[in-house]
Design a protein that fits this description.
This protein has 298 residues and is mostly helical. It has one domain. The chain contains 14 helices and no strands. The longest helix is centred in the N-terminal third of the chain and has 35 residues. The chain is globular.
């Protein structure tokens, strides 16, 4: 029994590592998306990005994988998850036009709270005091860093919250079906649905991008594919409530990219909030590592 518990803890730590890498990669995607949607329609960016991810996935698995997905016993859950992803990305991409990158990512960080709550009621996971504490401390850091007094436009805020809630549900569904479906299958399904829906308005909104835009979109597809793979692997290996607090690392990246690309220099409150976020993440890593060592000794 002790050996089995130790194996679970090792999987949890490995899953956290994958997820942290995925969240960091996604921070690059956020910056590229904000750059692109100022000159290109959201539907166009969504369609091209998902098309590139599907091509990468099919290059890995082969076209026969599509037939296997059609006959998958989990196709209903896969389609529901894909619809939620479409809603999340559509809302998130649209909101990115009106909000600064730091504001956008900060509001989005209601998602880990949603994940922890949903993991209790849907997945029946046991969320201990350490995980709750890490999540709440990280969210407190988000509030401190955000300076939410400056956020006065309600529509982009509402869209970002909707994206966060939908995204939280996708994390829960990943945890539910990831033991039966491969990461590549989930990537193919979700991006395939995005393509089928986003291609419909494309003839009416298409804007031919410049060469800079073409390079950014290609990069967006590559980054999106890598980020999705790492994140899905993280949620497949570790409990959702353990992974969720580490998504706060994206906030630190957001402020960094905001400064490098647009010259936004965060105020002191941002650094104070970032410190709280880092403390929450490292506290959870320490707690999980300590528990793993104790089980190994037992």
């Amino acid at each position: 029994m002790s050996s089995a518990e130790h194996k679970v803890q090792s999987r949890t730590m490995l899953g956290i590592g994958y997820a942290m890498a995925g969240f960091s990669v996604f921070s690059v995607q956020d910056a590229v998306v904000k750059w692109l949607v100022t000159s290109l329609p959201v539907w166009e960016v969504l369609c091209i990005r998902s098309s590139l991810i599907v091509l990468i996935g099919l290059a890995i698995t082969g076209p026969r994988q599509v037939i296997a997905l059609v006959h998958s016993p989990n196709r209903k859950a896969l389609l529901i998850r894909s619809a939620l992803i479409l809603m999340a990305w559509l809302a998130y991409f649209t909101a990115s036009r009106s909000l600064h990158l730091a504001e956008l990512v900060t509001i989005y960080f209601s998602a880990p709270i949603f994940v922890v709550i949903l993991s209790i009621f849907v997945l029946k996971e046991t969320v201990g005091l350490v995980r709750w504490g890490a999540t709440l401390l990280g969210f407190a850091g988000v509030v401190v860093a955000a300076g939410p007094k400056s956020l006065v436009d309600p529509l982009p805020i509402a869209l970002t919250l909707l994206a966060a809630f939908c995204w939280a549900w996708t994390h829960i569904l990943v945890r539910m079906i990831s033991q039966k479906e491969t990461t590549i299958n989930m990537m193919l399904t979700s991006n395939g649905v995005v393509i089928l829906v986003s291609v419909l308005p494309l003839p009416f909104v298409w804007v031919t991008p410049e060469w800079t835009g073409v390079l950014l979109i290609v990069g967006l597809g590559l980054v999106g594919a890598l980020g999705q793979y790492l994140m899905f692997e993280g949620y497949r290996l570790a409990p959702a409530s353990a992974v969720a607090p580490f998504e706060y690392i994206t906030l630190i990246w957001a402020f960094g990219w905001g400064f490098l690309i647009w010259g936004d220099w965060p105020p002191q409150a941002v650094f104070e909030g970032a410190a709280l976020i880092l403390v929450s993440g490292f506290a959870l890593i320490f707690a999980e590592s300590w528990k793993s060592r104790q089980l190994a000794r037992a």
